[in-house]
Design brief:
Blueprint lengths: L1 E5 L4 E6 L3 H6 L4 E5 L3 E6 L12 E7 L10 H7 E3 L12 E11 L5 E3 L2
Antiparallel strand pairs: 1-2, 2-3, 3-8, 4-5, 5-7, 6-7, 7-8
Length: 115
Amino acid sequence: VNMYGITETTVHVSYLALDRETAASAVSSTIGVNIPDLRVYVLDDRLQPVPPGVTGEMYVAGQGVALGYLGRPDLTAGRFVADPFAHLFGESGTRMYRSGDLARRRADGALEYFG
């Protein structure tokens, strides 16, 4: 299994089941799909989704995202931003984590990570 994780989501965000053939033929750093309690958005600088195949910044939302940084309101405000898509999932007033990492979504839905 190949996984992508960040502390702000209690480590794991996405996974990709690997077999020998997949590992040997990989031409990119594919990190798979989000785990069930999280959503991964690939967004442009206006917080709009980019089309599959286009690189954008990864944002992570859902129940597994931290509330912020303890004693660091300035850092929290810059990294945890309102989730403009929460209503699509029956949520309101939730935030998403701005990872600072670049990725693109493939046509099959898997994420390719660029750092």
